[in-house]
Amino acid sequence: MEDTRIWHFEESLWTGDAANYQEKIDDQCVMVLPQPPFVMTGAQSIDAVSDTPRWDSVEFGDQQVMRPEEGLIVIGYHATAQRGDERYEAYCTTTMRRLSHEEWRVVQHQQMVPLAKPVEA
After folding, report:
1. pLDDT tens, 15-58?
2. In angstroms, rounded to a whole number, what is the distance separating the alpha carbons of residues 40 and 88?
3. pLDDT classification of 65: cutoffs 50, 70, 90
4. Which residues lie closer than 8 Å to 120 by C-beta, 6 or more apart?
5. Strands annotated E in 1-121
6. DSSP-assigned beta bridge partners for residue 58
């Protein structure tokens, strides 16, 4: 999958409807999010998204794309999402695997919310 398509795929996971999300998240996916229950399976995240309003828009920065082997893509990025007056910011990773020609599924996703100020030791 070319880089432009990767970022369209990822954007659709933030802004697309629940059916789009269900189509692209593998049941065996592991997700780690910065709110309870924190660690979820793909099936649990699909259920959660069906009850969650989607983001109106998302912008990506600090984008990295790695292809450690054929049929496996790992991306890292900074996301800034907007829904009405609500704004959300996180650093994210996503791992996608190819099931067949042009058919990809997310098998890992993690979001880390930046701290407001550094933690002192």
Report:
1. 998 889 889 999 899 999 888 889 999 888 888 877 788 899 99
2. 20
3. very high
4. none
5. 25-32, 39-41, 57-69, 72-83, 86-100, 103-112
6. 81
Tokens for 117?
């100020």
110 pLDDT higher than 90: yes
- Is the separation of the CB atoms in 77 and 64 below 8 Å? yes
49's tokens: 């998204």
Question: What single-letter amino acid sits at 57?
Answer: S
Q: What are phi and psi of 56, to 5 degrees?
A: -70, -40
Rounded distance between C-alpha atoms, residue 45 and residue 25, angstroms: 9
Pair of tokens at residue 3: 């880089």
- CB contact set of 9 (below 8 Å; sequence gap of 6+): 1, 24, 96, 104
User: Rounded to two decimals, what is the model's pTM?
Assistant: 0.88
**d(Cα 39, Cα 21) in Å, to the nearest integer?**
18
